[in-house]
Amino acid sequence: EEYGQSLIADPRAIGLMAHELAHQWWGNRVTCRDWTHFWLNEGFATFMAAAYRERRFGRDVYLGEVEAWRARYERVKAAGKDRSLVFPDWKRPTSDDRALVYQKGALVLHELRERIGEAAFWKGIRAYTRAHIEGSVVTPDFERAMQQAGGRDLSGFFREWVYLESGV
């Protein structure tokens, strides 16, 4: 009821609904093979909710969300709790772990979008989704789709942002 009231008061507060609807594609139709790649569900849903709000309410709304993700990620990083988005031990996630898969995961998608450009980014998202619909994925599946769409090696980007050069 409280969420419904917030939507009536401000239609831009649709983030939760958009996030859960995004899971129809990234989380349900294309899902992570196991919890170690959970960011492919939650980072995607967080990012796609913001992308929807960008399309509906404008770029400034989207960039506000990006800055909120960045701020949350920077707090985790400053506390020395940054880690690979491919979690080897996702058994008892902390609040900081969740911030990584949701906010850092979404931030990675934003940064990748900025790096390879609009057309290549959305082409890669479509190719990744279509190739893995009704299937399970791991992070290298996404990396390959984005490299093909971008027409360049993105291994350095993924080492820095996703794996933290952990050699995963």
Could you characterize what this model shows?
- With 168 residues, the protein is mostly helical.
- It has 8 helices and 2 strands, in the order H-H-E-H-H-H-H-E-H-H.
- Strands 1-2 form a two-stranded parallel ribbon.
- Helix 3 packs across helix 5 (95-116).
- The longest helix has 22 residues, at 95-116.
- It starts with a helix and ends in a 5-residue tail after the last helix.
- The mean pLDDT is 91.
Please render the helix and strand layout as text:
Blueprint lengths: L1 H8 L5 H8 L7 E3 L6 H19 L1 H20 L16 H22 L1 H15 L2 E3 L1 H12 L4 H9 L5
Parallel strand pairs: 1-2
Helix pairs in contact: 2-3, 3-4, 3-5, 4-5, 5-6, 6-7
Short description:
With 168 residues, the chain is mainly alpha-helical. It contains 8 helices and 2 strands.
Keywords:
two-stranded parallel ribbon, mainly alpha, 8 helices, 168 residues
Q: Give the helix tally.
A: 8
Task: List segments where confidence is low: pLDDT < 50 over at least 5 consecutive residues.
Answer: none
Strand content: under 5%
What is the average per-residue confidence, as pLDDT, rounded to a whole number? 91
Biggest beta sheet summary: 2 strands, parallel
Distance between the termini: 43 Å
Structural class: mainly alpha
**Proportion in helices:** 55-70%
How many beta-strand elements?
Answer: 2
In the sheet with the most strands, the strands line up as 1-2
> Element order, helices and strands?
HHEHHHHEHH
What is the 3D form? globular
**Which value, in Å, is the CA radius of gyration?**
16 Å
